[in-house]
Amino acid sequence: MLDARCGLSVGANDIYLNVAGGLRIVEPAADLAVAAALVSALTETAVPTDTVVFGEIALSGDVRAVGHTESRLKEAAKLGFAQAWMPIGRGKRREAAVAPGLEAASIGHLKELVERLAPARSPRGPLSRQRRIGVAS
Fold this sequence. Notes:
single chain; 4-stranded mixed beta sheet; 6 strands
């Protein structure tokens, strides 16, 4: 999806995803969080540590709403997260506080996630890790 819909060169990299505790991810809400981790690694831009990310990604790149959104947000607020990157809810963009101390930022398409994480690119684009290895600093 990141290659086809966002123009990021994911296929040129070897990618290993490690889930804490070796758990299997069967929850579709983890799609957006996994995509955020991949984009973060490719652009070398960290997802803010106080941000929770969830949503299902369709083949078109659209981010779909998931079940139990309100309870997820309440739990994230209890755990101390300050911001939630999440799907657009019921045809409306959510940018307001959804739980005490938690701000929601709606993401409707995978490109919006990339825009949040991708730094300004040079006309040639960022150098790949392989090309940077031999470059003197």
